[in-house]
Amino acid sequence: MALRWTKIRIGSKYINVYNAAGADFLAINETKEAKKFLSKGAQVIIRMRGLPHDCTTQQVLDFFINGDTAPCHVLGGNEGVLFVNSSERLTTKDAFVLFAHESDAAKALGRHQDAIDQQKIELFRSTSIEVHDALRRSIANSKLDDNQIQPPSNTVPEDEFSYLKLN
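-> C-alpha cells emitted (167 positions)
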C-alpha cells in the first residue's frame, strides 16, 4: 500500500517510495564507530539501559563476570562494550555489549535488574541495526546540544492555517 504513494507531491517536491532491504537501511545509517564495534564477529548483542552516567567499561565487564549466576565474558574485553549517551536521559546512559556465543545470551540476560552502583540495569537482546540507529541518534543529539544543528520549529505561520478557526 505504501508504494502507491510514490511520486506524490508535498509542496513542490516529489516523494519517492520504494522497497528497501535491511542492507539499504544500514548503508544509510552506518557510522564508522558502529561498523568497527560490530566487526568483531559477535553472535549476541545485549543492550544495557539505565547505566549510571559515570559508568566505566570495567564496571560493565565486572557486571557480567561477578554475581550469583554463571559468568559470561564480553567478546573483545574493553572493545566489546560501546557506550551510547542520550540527551533525553541526562542521568543515565546505554551500552551495547558483544558476546561470542548464543549460550552467553541466557547467562547475560539472567542479570536483568542486577545493579551497578545501586542502580538497577535493564538488559535486552539487540541487533546490529539498533546499534547503528542508536549511534546515529546519539550523534544527532550531541550536535543539537552543541547548537550545530537547529531543531525544526514547531510554530506554524498564522496565515498558513487561517481557515482553521476555533470558536
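The longest helix spans residues 128-145.
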